[in-house]
Amino acid sequence: KVTRIDADAFVEQLDKTGLTFRVGFTGGEPFLVPNIVEACEKITRKHYVSFNTNLTLARIAEFVQRIDPQRVIEIHASCHIKELDIRGLIDRYCENYRLCKEAGFAIKAVARAYPPLLGELGRYREIFASKGVELEIGMYCGDYEGKHYPEAYTEAELAEWNLEEAPDIKFMSRCKGQLCNAGYNVAIIDPEGVVYSCFLAGTPLGDISKGFKFRKTMLRCPVDYCSCPLNCYDVPLFERALEETKQK
Asked: pTM value?
């Protein structure tokens, strides 16, 4: 069962803060939420949205028709190449990509350099290019056949896919004790509507329908390795937090 968004209550709590928000929808698939388009209409009257999506659902066409692209910061279209190919969804992915692009949405198609795919990435990149989609290749972060990536990439692989400067290289880095703006000007919301500082810190800040309050100071990361360092995801917000709190 996919939970509907109580958009009226959510927007009311956002507006009470007097701040302007970027509401990022991600993992699982946000376009499975039954009222996602209606919710975005209400959110984007004053705020902004962004998406991580596999870009294969029919609801995307409705989203393109009803949402102002100027209120959408980014659509990160995760391209799971093999799954798309196996399920015969490459054409649908590309069609939805073109639909968003032509309507003026900021969208990028990102595939991961998953080790078993490395030998085929060139062929797939050509296939997607022929359908109007320019694939960006990002690093894979994780284990495969006893090796840990991204450290296990060879210099030749990094050079071939222009991965040397990919921001993903900073992910899963040792973060314990370092300053983080999670809970200060950034928060996450679980499917039940509980607001937390981040997925790993686990500090509740409130509820999207009843109200929430940000921390007055930045926290120091309590975990050894972080998979979503906010100083990489949103550099301006992180730097603003440092400037406002004067923390070091």
From this structure: 0.88
